Recover the amino acids of this structure.
């Protein structure tokens, strides 16, 4: 996520002048704000929860397979 933000920041810095001259778009390269931090935390939490669900399912199946093999 940090690498993606860095890449986006670099692209915006390189494209700022072109976009303002050609299209009249003025895009700020200031990506680091409290909103960005909150959004990054929400994305990381959602990723953790979404990865936890299949991991718990795989764990339950492996425990069940281990119980069945020992019987």
């Amino acid at each position: 996520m940090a690498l993606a933000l860095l890449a986006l920041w670099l692209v915006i810095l390189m494209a700022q002048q072109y976009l303002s001259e050609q299209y009249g778009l003025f895009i700020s390269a200031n990506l680091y704000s409290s909103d960005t931090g909150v959004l990054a935390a929400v994305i990381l939490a959602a990723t953790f929860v979404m990865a936890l669900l299949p991991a718990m399912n795989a764990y339950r199946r492996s425990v069940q397979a281990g119980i069945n093999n020992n019987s």
Notes: The chain is about 85% helix and 0% strand. The chain has two domains: 1-31, 33-71. The two ends are 46 Å apart (CA to CA). The CA atoms of residues 63 and 69 lie 10 Å apart.
